[in-house]
Amino acid sequence: MAPTFKPLLLASTLAALLSGCGESTSSSTGENFSDSKDNGTISFDQQALLVSLTDNVITPTFEAFANKAQSLPAQVKAYCDLETSFDPSMQDEAQKAARDEAKLAAQDAWRETMVSWQHAELMVVGPLLENDKSLRNDIYSWPNASTCSVDQDVVFFEQGMINGVAYNIRNRSDKRRGLDASEYLLFNDELAYSCSSVAAGDILANWNTRDEQSRKVARCQFAVEVANDLSHSAQTLLNQWSGEQGYSEVLKTAGQPGNKFETQTKAINEISDALFYMTEELKDYKLATPLGLFANSCGLEACPQAVESVYAKHSIENIKANITAFEQLFLGGNGDAAATGFDDFLDEQQASDTKQVMLQGIADAKVAVNALEGNLQTTLVNDQAAVTNTHEKVKVVTDQLKNDFINKLALELPKTSAGDND
After folding, report:
1. For residues 249-288, b (16+ Cβ closer than 10 Å) or e, as one string?
2. Whether residue 274 has pLDDT greater than 60
3. Which domain holds residue 311?
4. Are residues 212 and 332 in the same domain?
5. What is the pTM of this model?
6. 65 and 177 together in one domain
7. Does residue 69 contact residue 234 with C-beta atoms inside 8 Å?
8. For residue 2, what is the enclosing H or E element?
9. For 107-126, what is each residue's pLDDT tens digit?
10. Are 334 and 370 contained in the same domain?
């Protein structure tokens, strides 16, 4: 539902939210949490919430991502075709300009796809959860990406074989695939491999001595393969999500006989678990770690190389998309007053004060991240206070999420957050 702002709680409430270094919770479940099938403590129309979140938010987000992912291969191939035919010895400025323009177009297509995916990152449910999030990781393996693995697979793909078996990217680990691999291939201008000499292995033994153009061609050709694989993964997500047998129907019919969810509350809990991306991945990994609030590669100090998107310098855009997606799930859409969201659920549970604090927190977080200028690496050096402010504003929302939100809606904390005092 569309937000309506009222005066916030007593000053003491806000002070409690903003005080201390971290969030805390003393329970893994809301005070009204029930595992029973009827869950009689809840009078709210939970099915209406499930239908609204599925049809108004999650399905359009997955469809938008698939559309972007499926258009990416053509853009990457258009660039790679020009890179492959480019002859540096000819010094043809028109040919060079065309190649460079095509590369910029491929990079822009990657940016659009990444923004779309960063919305979906707040909606890791169903197919994206299964098999230890294998499909999610095939699409985007951050923060466990490995550029060394990508370097190796550039050559494996070029050779077409691995240990006598034909190369197939779908049999490769997620660290060699997805949006993070695409970022490295499209945005990294350093052509030397990123591995240590020990990790490089025989496959990269001659890489750094090859001529520059052959390495560019090898990388762009693998970038096409990665983009095609990403498109396939996006279609897999849609196939598993959509249709009468898709996961979207599972959510919308939760609690019915034969459904995997015995109660509608359990289905809602899976969606609320997805909101906690804002706590660990966004607040802690994307902001606190580069700020040095947690250990990073620089120790315990601000560290530009610890940001999410090092090569494309897309970290701020990713954070903006995450916050926007959180807001959409919270409201049940893009501010449509008729949509049913978690805000309505809170109102029904006499927790309008919690709703207002969260809405104000979301608005403040958006203002804070919109005030960041340039890219996050530069801002950490030139205006660390602005990044710290963004972290603090996000933390106001996540404090509420881990405490009053869960308690008032009688939900259960994700296993990764239960008992977490950070």
Report:
1. ebbbbbbeeebebbbbbbbbbbbbbbbbbbbbbbbbbbbb
2. yes
3. 11-30+263-408
4. no
5. 0.89
6. yes
7. yes
8. none
9. 999 999 999 999 999 999 99
10. yes
